[in-house]
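Exercise 7. Given the encoded structure of a 155-residue chain, write a plausible sequence.
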């Protein structure tokens, strides 16, 4: 039987609204970040500006055993993850992705996931800038992200 679970991603240390050119990275302006929906790269959850003081997203999920599923959970069983998509936003509001961070759910410690399933909430906290101050990308696992469990707040 599947259990309901909310995943809250809390990001700090955002890179700003522009970056590059630097070390092979082109120049980008009006940078934003959002969670990408599974199989729909153009469908984004809660687009946030790259110069915000913090950003957060809450995902509704279901868990069966150690397998987490939901509309914003990517990948196959045993390799699930959440994409944070970075892109530029033009004057008409169109988003053009240029990089993604892959938050690996299979890297959540088993005891933390078990507690989160019981209590209803899994929280991932991370800085959203890489070591050069650019938007974070690539595979993200602890210690780059800290996973904790807590009681789900209804509402």
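Solution.
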């Amino acid at each position: 039987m599947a259990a309901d679970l909310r995943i809250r991603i809390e990001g700090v240390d955002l890179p700003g609204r522009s970056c590059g050119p630097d070390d092979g990275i082109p120049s980008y302006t009006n940078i934003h970040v959002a969670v990408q929906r599974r199989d729909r790269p153009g469908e984004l959850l809660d687009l946030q500006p790259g110069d915000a003081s913090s950003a957060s997203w809450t995902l509704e999920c279901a868990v069966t055993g150690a397998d987490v599923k939901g509309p914003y959970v990517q990948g196959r069983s045993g390799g699930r993850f959440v994409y944070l998509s970075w892109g530029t936003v033009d004057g008409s509001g169109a988003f053009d992705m240029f990089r993604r961070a892959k938050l690996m759910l299979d890297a959540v410690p088993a005891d933390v996931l078990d507690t989160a399933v019981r209590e209803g909430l899994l929280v991932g906290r991370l800085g959203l800038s890489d070591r050069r101050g650019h938007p974070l990308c690539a595979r993200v696992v602890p210690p780059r992200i800290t996973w904790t469990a807590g009681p789900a707040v209804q509402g």
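Remark. The longest strand covers residues 54-64. Students should compare their own answers with the one above.
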